[in-house]
């Protein structure tokens, strides 16, 4: 069975967990705190990031969440999440990159820094200005999701894909950390409620990260 | 024919150009300066980044360099750059991510900011401390390349792959900007000289970015 080295609020690990659950691939969670700089963790991934996945029986270790997702797409046929024509697949991967890079840089990354790292590692209080800025930028991304969902059934086209899993993973972390104001984002909200209702999402919604509690709407699927 | 919207020192555009040249796909360069925030450019790529590629005849627009590279791998069989078993392909993609994300964050990105953006956009002089830090971190990545080349013919295994193209693209930008000290990196240097000698690399080495000149060794392939 695959082991996933991760921590509950790592959005890249959440994406991998959603993909594995959608494809019916079993896994076991292993706790990793990349910021602690443990040698054993860096030996598995010199980039020093979660997630890392490992199959101890076959001694396979993989890292980088996009490389991992492509690996499962190539090795497990069930429920493909990067499918369609080459152009449709490029559209899926474009949106994956936008959420993993831009949304993480502007929204989920700063929220994790201010609300999680400052609390657990730096023992500082969050910077109100940085939090406001991340929440403001979150609106621009949700506007873009509204627009996509106005034009397509799912983010990248006519079927659910890795783009939806990636966006939902990143947004769920921002939502946990109180960074998302859903009012005025009807389409994005409706899409996200559908994502939250999927069985693959339930384990994520019930997890809690130590001292940080999510807002009450976070785990509600009928709100 | 494909159009690539880029600027000469964008490492992600360089990767796409190398891949297209290796696969024998013709392209035409179009100049783009993402930091100028032009509406026409954002309409093509809401993430606001270079490269963007466009086929005007078929009205196809693609962005995100990894999505673009996967697209060409899927549509053009010649000279595959993401090949082998699923595990080998995951290793290629892991290294692509390491250079595009970590090396860019630590080395080529800060060098571009200090030496190009500050000159062209902000009209400031570079910060000596930031330059020193980027050059120091470059050594760690070159140590890793030394180690890889000690263990394998090419970065990701027994054949040249997108990992080599990506690493060479990122390193070439850092080298242009004077950020690479090649002494003490014998293996990395030998590998990079082989990359520089490839026909696909020649157009990159002969280009210059306005007011910024590279060090004399930059374009030498027999040094
Ligand atoms: N390219 C990586 C990025 C993963 C990433 O940035 N993970 C964060 C945690 S959310 C991390 O481990 N950062 C290093 C740290 O916090 O020290 C992926 O897609 O897996
Ligand atoms: N995920 C993108 C990242 C590309 C990227 O970061 N490009 C830089 C230029 S090297 C950019 O356009 N930055 C925006 C700016 O400078 O305003 C890709 O792989 O294509």
UniProtKB/TrEMBL annotation, chains A, B:
It comes from the Bacteria. Homodimer. This is Glutathione S-transferase. Signal peptide: none annotated. Pfam families: GST_C, GST_N_2. Residues 85-218 form the GST C-terminal domain. Residues 1-80 form the GST N-terminal domain. One of its GO terms (biological process) is glutathione metabolic process. PANTHER family: GLUTATHIONE S TRANSFERASE D10, ISOFORM A-RELATED. GO terms for molecular function: glutathione transferase activity.
